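Zinc protease
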Amino acid sequence: MKTNSHFAHYALILLGLTLAGSHSVQANPHEYLLDNGLKLIVKEDHRSPVVIHHIWYKVGSMDETNGTTGVAHALEHMMFKGTAEVPPGEFSRRIAAVGGRENAFTSRDYTAYYQQLHQRHLPMAMALESDRMSHLLLTEEEFSKEIQVVMEERRLRTDDQPRSLLYEKMIATAFQTHPYRRPVIGWMNDLEHMQVSDNQEWYNRWYAPNNAVLVVVGDVDPENVLALTKQHYGKANARPLPGIAERKPQAEPPQVGIKRLRVKAPAKLPYLLMGYKAPTLSDPQNEWEPYALEILAGVLDGHASARLNRALVREARIAISVGAGYSAIARGPGMFYFDGTPSEDKTIDELEQSIRAEISQIVESGITAAELARVKAQVVAAHVYQLDSMFSQAMQIGRLESAGLSHRDADTILKGLQAVQAKQVQEVAKKYLIDDFLTVATLDPQPLTGATSTRPDTTQLRH
């Protein structure tokens, strides 16, 4: 499965599902809280006899400390290595035997596991997933093999991918103290010295029902799902979680000037990456700036007629490709990104200045009514399209919940985007797209040694 990039236009991904605002059992989705603290959210979708079963743990790489970076992702791998009841490899074998799909993913903010299968096999998926929530067996033998897989994943996805490497080093430069500066996959030196005990400690600390959200979407009856959840997950014991003193917010200090870095790596073409620090969404009901930033990203990118593609690729031919992106949904600080590859007869500096010129034009003159209407129409279209995918519905619910928001905020977010005015888009461009918030990273291509180039990944998958 392809991983998600910061350069996707998340406004069109995260806002596709309107959720009911009522807390009653008649609402769809249906929300329940077990005695052990596990939150269950069930979304009925009876169009096909399929069910999506997701368990989201509210812990990711931002909760790691120096010396053990990558442990959240390493444990994700180890979660498939068995329990007393389910030997290594048996979890995946059983899911595949009934025609199902399963995988897992780790991000800065959360770690999640899923199965997609026929609805009659939901009890099996719950039995397997709840078993490893409480009874995972971590052995030195299995860990010593799997950590080699993790290190190879880092080599293939970051060290040998020039754009991914550039992104990693850019983030480590942009953030001075916030744990977002550390890569999800972990630093290689930390992986080389990681112990199975690091994984055990992480599992004991964070993998508890009171730190998890179970999301079930599909052809199900909510009350039956609740009964199954109590039967399987209800056996897990709640555990004390790290308190406020141990889980400090680690607010990023103000940046006081532009940061620049150049990375040498084997590549065919140069590449430019620009990131402006920007806020993320914490109060969907009362904030408007994150919504305006989402609209701004849509004006600049996300469509053939968007400003950057039209002006810099098709008209001026400054760039082969150019884009912008922003995500309002995160536990930590956000960034507004620009990236691009200059045309053969153009330089990185010329591309940067051209992007800056497009920013200045919006700061000085704003956006048009037609541009605003187009982006809002895209948001509404995505709202409709996402209903076609049970998996996308489950992903949206889990992401909102894991970011400290609620699945009920989806309606509020959609309305917030639709309420954005053109002058607000101009205001956020003027306020946040400034040098004091900017980090610029450039890829200096070196002779190729077999490396390939892809967009940077921010989420690492098991497969």
